[in-house]
Amino acid sequence: MGITFKNTLNNTWRLVTYNLKIVFGGKFWLFVLSALLFFLIFGTIQAFNDDYFTQDEIYGLLLLPSLLLIFYPTVFGIQNDADMRTLEIIFGIPDYRYKVWFVRLIMVFLIVFALLFPLAYLARVLLIDFDYIPMILQLMVVVLFVGNLAFFLSTWIKNGNATAVVVVLIGLIYFIMQGVLRESMWNIFLNPFRQLEGTAALLWEETVMYNRIFMLSASVIFILFGLLNLQRREKFLR
Hints:
Helix content: over 70%
Largest sheet: none
Shape: globular
Structural class: mainly alpha
Oligomer: single chain
Order of helices and strands: HHHHHHHHHH
Distance between the termini: 46 Å
Number of domains: 1
Strand content: under 5%
Number of helices: 10
């Protein structure tokens, strides 16, 4: 019984590390280190510029490393499969590609979720005391949306560099339109921790709720269409 359990753990660990190597292009720890450096650099800059931190600033500070961690595996995952010639294996087994990529996405999201805890804890200790569980859950809504959108686009465009350009352009458009979309439920970078008072606070809570419903619903649609795009075997194996 003990040997069987140990073998199961070993096989699971090998499966996880193998898929991490593919989706992160063999640079998983480099991305983790980069996310930590981004957090420390921008956190230090803000610490010198601001006398007092607020939760909405912490949200923005944690959002950048979160998106950095999710960007590469979802944008370049299909491309990495093609480069490593594992697409033929994935498409060789009926419906296997759905299981592989669904598990990979869950695995990547769980990794980002887990890595947000030490980053949020550092922000809490070094910058400002805040309840980091709601903060992490709010950040994960954006991570799910961006990650599933990038995955869907990668299955549609089928080229990592082109997908990266499209995702960055979408991000730039939203960034440029922040003045217009700042308080809109359609703003994917809406900051739910903005401090408002009175009637404005009640309207803001409603806007945040509808924004999160929109983003979670869109995330489900993106991942479903992405998995459906994987049906087109001939589009990937050319």
